[in-house]
Each structure stands twice: as structure tokens, then as C-alpha cells.
Amino acid sequence: MIYMDAASTAPPRQDVLDMLNPLLTKDFGNPASLHEAGQQAKRANDWARTQVAGQLGVAAEEVYFTSGGTEGANAAVIGAALAKPRGRVVVSSAIEHPAVLEACKYLVEFHGFEHRIIPVSVTGLVDLEAAGQLIDADVAVVSVMAVNNEVGTIQPVEQLAQLAHAAGAIMHTDAVQAAGWIDLKPLCAAVDALSISGHKIGSLKGSGAMYLSAKHRFVPLLHGGGQQGGLRSGTENPAAAVGIAVALQAATAQREAGLGENFGPYLIERILKELNAKHPGSVRLTGDPEHRVGGIASFVFPKTAGETVLIELARRGVLCSSGSACAAGSTDPSAVLTAMGYEEELAHTAVRLSFTRTAKENEISQVASAVVSCVSGLLS
Questions:
Q1: Thinking of the domain 14-255, which architecture would CATH place it in?
Q2: How many Cβ atoms sit within 10 Å of the Cβ of residue 37?
């Protein structure tokens, strides 16, 4: 079996598991307790916060631990919008994760906000000219993801942040798919809020972290005991926090070493070249050919039907997906691809191959061969 669905969830890192075991079995105290067990847990939690802050290039008091990317996006978008004493408008791209789009929908339905949507090109890049027209003095929050979770396109977040700040708005970026592949420090330096998820970088499901700038006020989503400065109440989870910290450290070391950097381009080149040589027009790359992360290679297969390619790849031991796991069970075509201009029938043929930097070179080669063989067999 070759696992190629890391954009849905990445395999847990062994170094993360090794660090978590004592926190789940021996040092399990509540960080709010004053006895030694509680203080040991608090020291672990404080260490994790400091480490994550260092990875993001922000102050420790600006780091908050969450239950994942969805909570982080909601806390940033809704929290900033409700705290902003100005026009009741939120702006996002057309291809945001449902965590952002549904947060915007909530603001529209329950708080009377307007939701403006920035269109994207056929490669998934936001239209900066349109963004400039949509982001004005009435806008409270702008939220655009750093890397698209289905096609891997990297967005010009820094330029969007400049537009947001020029209009007096707060800028949030969903960096769930960026963590592990691009440096998060420049992103944090450009934006006011950033959210990541633990299980996308080899830590635990149900864990996440967010950066909220101390320069701005955010209304908390959760109310209770006042943990984490009152912005994220609820008993803190040192094991989840340490897992995020260790995973981010490992991801940074691998990125700086260039590990796995060429796997994506290799996979894309082989599949496009070999399939189109045998069956012209049988495959198209989705997402931007240049502005993309190395860990997501996504395609549509115009001459095949539905999920046939996925089923055949699974039979050959390659586990991948058609797109976002958050749309699992839906028979609708990818909302991301249709927003990019793909016809519904073609969008139904999407296949996303996603992997971590620790993927093995021979596995990447085997996957390329499997895709070419699989699609060729279906078209013969």
C-alpha cells in the first residue's frame, strides 16, 4: 500500500508519538492545577507555546491552541468580524475551505454581514484586481488560504494583506496546507491571524494552533474558565500542544533540508508526459503549474468516468482521493474546480495525489507508473 492522501490526514510522526506518550500516561495533570502534576503539565504546555511561537515568528502570548483548522478559521474570521467596529463585510476567495466559507455564511445569516467573494483564475489564483475592488473601507475581515487544499495553488497572501490593511481590515490566512511546505514566518509577518491543523503535519487529529495578533481584538468563540487569556476557554491539552510543536520543528528541518522538494514536479511531469504521449488529451493538471506546493499533484482525466481512476488505483495499492475529505460522501463535483471554471462532468474525474516530505522516492515513481498504467488501461 502506498498512502497518497496526506492532504486529508498525514501519517503521525514517530518523534511526535514518542513525546506524547509520557504526557498521556504519566504527566497527565490539568495545567490549571497548582500541585506538581498540574505544574508539570503546565511546563509542557508553556514549552509548546514558546516553540510554536518561534516557528511562526510571533510572541508566545499570540499563540493559541485549538481543536484544529476548522476551529482556528472560525475563531479568526468570526472573532475578528464581531470585534471590528466598522462595516459589516467579510471577504474571501471563491475556493476557501468550508471552515471559512461557512463562518462567513454564519456572519451573513445571524449578524447581518455581507460576504464578498474574490474570483479565481482557471489555475486557482485569486484575481488581485478584483480583490482590490472588493476590499474597501466597509470590510472588517479578509480571509484567503495560503495554499489550496485540493489543487495546491499558493496564493499571494502578502499582496492581499496589503490590500486589506490599506482598507483598515484584518487579514486571516488558513495555512493548514502550507505548514510543512512553505515558511510560515513571512505569512505571520504579513497577516493578523493564521490557523494550522495538527494532523496535516504528522501530529494528532483534533489538535491545532492559531496566531492572533495582539494588535487587534478578537471576540472568543468559546466561553468558560478563561484559559489561554480568555480567548480560548476549556481545559488545555498539553499533549496536543507538544505534538504541534514537535511536528512543526520537524517540518521546518525537512523543509530547510529540501527533503522531497522535487517529488511533486517529478510526479506531474511523468504523468502528463507519458499519458499524453499515449493518449493525447487524456490528462490535465489542475492548479497553478508554477505557484504550487510540492506535496499536492492534482489532475482531471477528460476521457474517463467519475471515480473510476480512484477505484482502479486503490486496487493497485495506491490510496488517494478526489479532493477535500471534508466533502466526503457528497456526490457533487468539487466546488473548488467548478469555481475555477471546470465543467461539472470534468470536475467529477479529479484525482489528488498528496504526500509528505518523508515520502520515498521509489514510491513516488511507483505511483506515477500506476497512474499511467491505470488510465491507459481504462482508455484502451
A1: 3-Layer(aba) Sandwich (3.40)
A2: 15
Mean pLDDT for each 10-residue chunk of the chain (380 residues)?
97 95 92 93 97 98 98 98 89 98 98 97 98 97 98 98 98 97 98 98 97 97 95 96 98 96 97 97 97 97 88 96 65 92 95 97 97 94
- Check if CATH label 3.40.50.1010 holds for domain 2-8+259-375: no
Q: What is the pTM of this model?
A: 0.96
- Which residues are part of the catalytic machinery? 326
Domain boundaries for CATH 3.40.640.10 within the chain: 14-255
Residue 241: which of 49, 33, 28 has the closest Cα? 49
What would the grid cell of residue 47 be? 514549552
